[in-house]
């Protein structure tokens, strides 16, 4: 059939290569599919339709270097997963049988074990056959990861059903995150480890560079698939889970423009993959003392993902499953144009002019919740000023003589106690003071890092500071070092006051959330050093950490008396609710802080700048996009908390204590968002007169010579008791907003 739109100009930076065992895989997998019963129902598949889709060709393209037996195994996996998708569509998507669909998916879990039940359909027979052929060659750590991504791929098919049932199209942030699970590319990435003999070292698999490589790979695979499959999925099957459709609805544009935006996002994610591989992997290897054999595994994994990207595009262009119009790839199957290099994710992201004028009109944010104040507000204001002075927040900073990051006047104008008051309206006086102190510490740290380390381009000093801060949070609460700076003294005081009442497991979760926040500040410094406006997906996901929202929410979730089982915390509904609240608050902060960050600080980390750079539009249009994202996330939060979450609790027959804990957490999130909005509207932190009066220091305002930076690294290392040039590892995040920008 003729397509209603032309496929876009795809960025194809890698050449596809074909595995020489392609014919063997085709023959083997045809027989395997018949043996599993996948060709028994002609309404789903026939031998002719299977041959036309040519999954043997797909796997030969996406795994060009593996052996014939390995290619047979991988091809069987892809035949199984595509059959599952079509079988699920035929059995449940058309009938809208939600209950039957969930039972069907839950039963598949049992086949990822050493003692599976008797299979009852082709999907179960396929999984029962594949599992013992696959897992013996891999470690227990890989097996756990593969179970998780396979379960995500299967279970998140319900997400598509829910949207069809509601006739609802996701907002862009929700779509990218959920598509990453249901689309199966993280599952494909785990199979790359198997096929390429590149199992990731367990200690590195959760690191930011590996995570971003996998996620940017996954997003690129899914966005490309959405462009090729729009006609079949949306026009023929009535699906609502396609980025082209998401862009049509969110931006209110025609299909042609939606295709262009989707393709720009695909290009940006490919650039993010390249950027991470070239700039973040070397730092990871140095920081974590990664051995040469381990480095080889990681690099082989990255190459495997790169091969998959190139081969996946070649297969999409050949398979009967997808649209066939549009331009062809160039020489060797590659296509890199000037627009790909200079556009979204490319050179455009390095050309922002610091300290540009930043006059924009802010909209009235959508906020359905009311703010209540804590009766101890005035006492908390006074106590926080005393605490910050006692910690040394108003003192000079090592390496910057006679210069303070804050002073008492500025802190009083920020009025962080007002924010804490709305977030915790029912807290005791001591609890409110503790909440305010955390806000002050996080916000001070957010100002401290660019002031102290940013101006000198001192990434080593920042990592060394992070190492010391982590050592100030001992799980056994036994101090092992003396804090030397105001930032260190603040954390050393806050940690036992907060972690002491928490049980050990909760204590560890909370510490991880603080570690993730401070490591995200180093990520910001690295982007500033490269003068790079972040990719929009990477920015939004990291913004939750830089804002401290995950740290905030971990404290709320771990509050004494809360009983929220992990199986609820890890559900689509609970995670979606939490992420929607985080994104609302983070984007809200970016709207209010836009002029402060862009005009006065020369910053690059602001959603308005990120969106206007990605879309190549004026800042005011960027404001409109950010406001639209905020509003859509709030409406998603409302829907989840009033419909999806109650349905989940009913489905699992949750007890009264669990329901009360979940309801209290939802109330905390509502208070949190409403209080943050009210605080932004009243705080002096974002007023021009305050910005002109306060000290401003970002990268372009500090020393820039290599000799100066090296000298500062040495002086800071000496002050902190460590050797100059020591490689420090970034580390991995959640109850108040620490680190408001």
Automatic annotation (TrEMBL):
Its cofactor is Mg(2+). Its EC number is 4.2.3.-. Keywords: Lyase, Magnesium, Metal-binding. Coiled coil: none annotated. It is an enzyme of class 4 (lyase). Pfam families: Terpene_syn_C_2. Belongs to the terpene synthase family. This is Terpene synthase. It comes from Microbispora amethystogenes.
């Amino acid at each position: 059939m003729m397509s209603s739109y032309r496929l876009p100009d795809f960025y194809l930076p890698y050449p596809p290569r074909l595995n020489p065992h392609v014919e063997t895989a085709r023959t083997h997998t045809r027989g395997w599919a018949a043996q599993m019963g996948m060709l028994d129902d002609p309404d789903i598949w026939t031998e002719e339709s299977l041959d036309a889709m040519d999954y043997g060709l797909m796997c030969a393209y996406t795994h060009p270097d593996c052996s014939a037996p390995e290619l047979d195994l991988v091809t069987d996996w892809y035949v199984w997963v595509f059959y599952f998708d079509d079988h699920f569509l035929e059995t449940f998507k058309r009938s809208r049988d939600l209950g039957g669909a969930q039972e069907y998916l839950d039963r598949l879990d049992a086949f990822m074990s050493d003692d599976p039940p008797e299979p009852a359909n082709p999907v179960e027979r396929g999984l029962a056959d594949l599992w013992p052929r696959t897992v013996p060659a891999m470690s227990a750590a890989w097996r756990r990861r593969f179970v998780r991504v396979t379960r995500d791929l299967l279970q998140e098919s319900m997400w598509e059903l829910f949207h069809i049932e509601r006739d609802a199209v996701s907002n862009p942030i929700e779509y990218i995150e959920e598509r990453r699970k249901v689309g199966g590319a993280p599952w494909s990435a785990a199979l790359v480890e198997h096929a390429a003999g590149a199992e990731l070292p367990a200690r590195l698999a959760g690191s930011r560079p590996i995570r971003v490589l996998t996620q940017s790979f996954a997003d690129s695979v899914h966005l490309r698939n959405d462009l090729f499959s729009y006609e079949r999925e949306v026009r023929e099957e009535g699906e609502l889970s396609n980025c082209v459709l998401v862009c049509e609805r969110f931006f209110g544009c025609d299909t042609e423009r939606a295709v262009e935006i989707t393709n720009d996002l695909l290009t940006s994610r490919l650039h993010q993959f390249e950027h991470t591989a070239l700039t973040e992997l070397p730092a990871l290897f140095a920081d974590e003392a990664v051995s040469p054999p381990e480095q080889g595994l990681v690099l082989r994994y990255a190459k495997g993902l790169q091969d998959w990207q190139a081969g996946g595009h070649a297969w999409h262009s050949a398979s009967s499953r997808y649209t066939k119009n549009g331009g062809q790839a160039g020489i060797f199957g590659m296509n890199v144009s000037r627009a790909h290099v200079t556009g979204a994710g490319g050179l455009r992201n390095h050309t922002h002019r610091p300290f540009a004028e930043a006059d924009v009109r802010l909209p009235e944010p959508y906020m359905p919740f009311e703010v209540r104040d804590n009766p101890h507000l005035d006492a908390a204001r006074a106590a926080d000023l005393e605490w910050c002075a006692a910690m040394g927040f108003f003192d000079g900073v090592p390496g910057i003589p006679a210069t303070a990051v804050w002073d008492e006047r500025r802190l009083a104008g920020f009025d962080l106690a007002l924010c804490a008051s709305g977030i915790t309206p029912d807290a005791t006086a001591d609890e409110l003071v503790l909440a305010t102190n955390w806000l002050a510490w996080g916000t001070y740290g957010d100002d401290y890092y660019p002031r102290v380390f940013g101006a000198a381009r001192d990434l080593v000093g920042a990592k060394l500071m992070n190492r010391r801060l982590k050592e100030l949070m001992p799980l056994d609460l036994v101090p092992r070092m003396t804090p030397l700076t105001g930032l260190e003294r603040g954390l050393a005081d806050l940690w036992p006051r907060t972690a002491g009442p928490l049980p050990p497991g909760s204590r560890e979760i909370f510490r991880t959330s603080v570690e993730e926040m401070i490591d995200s500040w180093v990520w910001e410094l690295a982007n500033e050093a490269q003068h790079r406006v972040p990719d929009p997906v990477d920015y939004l996901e990291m913004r939750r950490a830089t804002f401290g929202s995950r740290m905030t929410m971990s404290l709320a979730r771990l509050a004494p008396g809360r009983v929220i089982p992990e199986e609820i915390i890890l559900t689509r509904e609970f995670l979606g609710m939490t992420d929607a609240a985080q994104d609302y608050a983070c984007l809200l902060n970016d709207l209010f802080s836009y002029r402060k960050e862009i005009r006065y600080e020369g910053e690059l980390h602001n959603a308005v700048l990120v969106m206007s750079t990605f879309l190549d539009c004026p800042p005011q249009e960027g404001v409109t996009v950010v406001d639209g994202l905020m509003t859509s996330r709030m409406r998603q939060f409302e829907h989840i908390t009033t419909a999806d979450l109650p349905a989940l609790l009913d489905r699992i027959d949750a007890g009264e204590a669990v329901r009360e804990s979940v309801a209290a957490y939802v109330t905390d999130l509502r208070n949190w968002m409403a209080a943050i909005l009210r605080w932004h509207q009243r705080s002096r932190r974002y007023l021009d007169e305050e910005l002109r009066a306060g000290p401003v220091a970002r990268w372009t305002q500090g020393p820039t010579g290599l000799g100066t930076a090296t000298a500062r690294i040495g002086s800071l290392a000496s002050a902190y008791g460590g050797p100059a040039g020591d490689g420090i590892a970034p580390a991995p995040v959640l109850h108040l907003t620490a680190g408001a920008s």
